[in-house]
Amino acid sequence: MSSSKAISISRRKSKLLVILLLLPVFLWAEPYRAAIVTDNPGYQGVLEDALLLLSGDVTSQTAIEARREKDERLKKIEREKSISQARQDEKSPSENAETAAEEETLSLELVTLELSDTEKEFLYKGDPDATRYVLLRDNLDLLLVSDAAEDGMLTEAVLYINGEESRRTLYITGEDGDEFSAVVALLKPLLKDDDTIIIRADLPYAVSVSVDGNTEVPVRGYIAAERGEHSISYSSPGFESLSQDIEVGDDTVLTAELIERPVSSLFISSRPYDSELFINGMKLDSHTLPEAPLPFQVTARHDGFGTYTIQSRMDLDKLEISLRPEWMENEDIVKDAKDRFYRNLLTTLVSFGCYVASGSLEDIYPEAEFSPVTGMLAGFSFVGLVELFDSMFDYFQAARLGI
């Protein structure tokens, strides 16, 4: 005689179990979050371009394993909060999660952090506790911190990757091509597998490269492609289209003998090349204009990129426009420049008003010896005026360039 024991699970507990089983998949669906912390605009451009070149799916096994371990830790914490006991003879949610996670992909996303001056100070020193705190608080997978300072014609920079000093360098300010290549070499093993090759695209500025039908925008003359045979297409409003099959390897350089199309009075090249173009508010059907009105205003826009507008009173025959991806936009720069300008304006008005008042009191009460105070206020007013003009120029540049 055999007997069977029925195991009942309440509806509430079954829903909880399903949620716990799916939790790692939800966590895995989150992007691979990266952030940059630096006060040097030049070095920030180096880091942003390096991440842009390596953007897309994260295929590095190091990154995938780190994400899997991170998800397992979060899942374990959540499970310990919700379930006190689990059946040991059944497949655990952890094993189910790992099976599901293997079928997912990670996509790189650059995020902007809001940090206090104290937090930045500790991060610039590579403090491990501060790094772990920011990584956990902002749910980051990759944190790039650079303490870069310009001294005349030279820039000295220290790069920390997730709190570890990875590079210390000195280079000529503005000549950062070698530094860009070095940073890419550091970040590539963290984001891409060994089959991903960084190849040189020795092509004219306005040419768009398509690899197996997927458009790639060269970053500082480089693109990332998988090792092996690919169909490469080149297209641009200024050149005839061309296609070729190549074998991508370690020493591959993309070159193409492109036939340039006749250029009209004004040729507008844009990156991406299929951006929507407007001149004085009117949409253009092509990148060439037989005659350009003077003065003119050209606006370029593209899905996934920021909008860019430029004005000119000069008779140009060629105009080059490069749009920044939306994920790299920092909307706080214009606001910060505006706040600094108005803050300096208020400070200058107050100090100048105090200077005028002190001078008047000195004339009324000459025996009171207001001269030292008046001189000091005059100095404050002069310094405030210099700061005011400096912040006004920064505000104008930020508002005009949209950066």
From TrEMBL:
Residues 78-103 are annotated as: Disordered. Residues 78-93 have a biased composition (Basic and acidic residues). It comes from the Bacteria. This is PEGA domain-containing protein.
